[in-house]
Design a protein that fits this description.
60% helix, single chain, mainly alpha
């Protein structure tokens, strides 16, 4: 995933540079599995009632025309909270 040869990484960089997801996938010229996995991940999160803000943000960018920069900003402005029930947040 971290390799510059990764299809998902290349597509993500292109989308971050302002290309649409469709343009990025056309430029990569191979299947970008993460696009399909993002949709499936969101469906699973909803099915099981799991809050998944990063998956939701990815779907907003990939399928609803939202700006990557705006979605990252919204994620960074979220209130800090426990991610796992029963675990305390320590600064």
């Amino acid at each position: 995933c971290a390799s510059m040869h990764s299809r998902n990484r290349r597509a993500g960089i292109l989308i971050g540079q302002g290309k649409t997801p469709e343009e990025a996938m056309d430029e990569v010229k191979q299947v970008v599995e993460g696009v399909y996995s993002a949709r499936a991940g969101l469906q699973l999160a909803r099915k099981y009632g799991v809050e998944a803000p990063i998956i939701d943000a990815a779907n907003q960018v990939l399928f609803n025309g939202k700006s990557p920069a705006e979605e990252v900003s919204a994620l960074m402005q979220r209130d800090k909270k426990n991610e796992i029930n029963g675990q305390m947040w320590n600064d």
